[in-house]
Design a protein that fits this description.
- The protein has 2 domains: 43 residues, no CATH class; 86 residues.
- It has 4 helices and no strands.
- The mean pLDDT is 80.
- With 143 residues, the protein is an all-alpha fold.
Length: 143
Amino acid sequence: MTSTKRAKLAPTEREKNQVSGTLETLAKQFKTNAELYEKQNGKPYPVQLKENSDYDYVNPQHYVQEDGRQTWEHMVDEFGLYETAVFCKLNAYKYADRIGKKPNEDVEREQAKIDWYLSKADELFDINERLNNDKDWGYLKTD
């Protein structure tokens, strides 16, 4: 009996994300080791790692769901505008509270995440207000 399985031509999004995560981890390890080398030897490590500037660290592809929508959009469906806006505001606080404390983390990139979450919170609060809802309690709504 012959197999009817097709050859796999392209990786799935999950596989791409796994590879991307592994590469990120390896890049951080490389950067740490290169910094240690420089500290111990007083000169830069002889090999430099070229970083992929196309990767969006603020709004990465792994937040896009199978239907093409972002995770925050699904949160609005599940919990409502108000609660999702509060989540965004609190997430901005979390990033601001630990900015500069994560090893090998770019402070400008962290600030961009803070700005994104604050902007999204403002946008969602504004939409909620324009819809004449004091609070959109999402799944807790009783009307």
